[in-house]
Amino acid sequence: MIRTDEQLKLAEQAALNLHRVLLAARKIHSPQDYRKMSEPVLLELQQRQTEILMYLSHEEVEALAR
Length: 66
Hints:
The chain is mostly helical. It has 3 helices and no strands.
């Protein structure tokens, strides 16, 4: 769970890195191989994005982090 703005920055960077991995993988893998290898990466990306949205949508979390 993200509790601070610094953790938010790290989560955003991790999500960006996952995007880069997926974009690179699309260029070198067949569609079938990409589907197989991308599933866990996409799940991780979804989890990171959910955590980011949860942090950004809760004002009280931000207030407590200050």
